[in-house]
Amino acid sequence: MYVRYSLFLDWKHYREVVDVAAARFPGWEDREPPEYAAELRCLRFLSRLMPEPFVYAHWNAHLRNLRHLEEALGAMTEHVVDETISRVRALNMTPRLTGLFRDAVFGLKNQLLVPEWMRTPSLRMKFSKFVFSDAEASPMVTWNGALRALRRNSLRKLVDRGFETFWHGPALGFDPWLNKDEGYLAVPPAAVKRIFTERAFSVHHLPRIGLDLARAVVGHFLQMAFHLKRK
């Protein structure tokens, strides 16, 4: 029920539910009251399979209206990507490899703080309806049922481009990642400290998020170079 309807809850009236989505500390299940431990453990287990609703709940409650933060993060991401491409070009690799890498990186979509499609109400409704269609006959959604729904929805994505990217990386963690198969570069909400603004934002985040983004992009380049060499 939480995963299905969390995309539409008014977080101001369901703050405890949002806090569940934002709990990211080791041993969290041991510090909760016994009457909530089993429920929270179930939610955290499910979050590893389907992190999108949990990420959205956190973004909707804490980050949605911080446009200056998203703009600063977007500018920093573009700067890191451009700088990494320049550094790779300076290595004087083969023109073919450099061109392939440039095209691949420019083709990546930046998914900052939340999957981009989750900002659209109609797509969130589709996600809720399709992924949890098994719940129409019963209020209980079993673990196997959630797995079947996820696989079914992944296949549907091949013909319905409404859901362009799913976050299969560490969405509830602190580190950015690059998914070359889905074609996106992601920064999860936990990676950003919202207390920093303007110049302080770059001073704090560039040595952290910036370095992780550069590492992900360079890792993609090394994989491309390895596969091209094998050919």
From TrEMBL:
Superkingdom classification of source: Eukaryota
The molecule here is called Uncharacterized protein
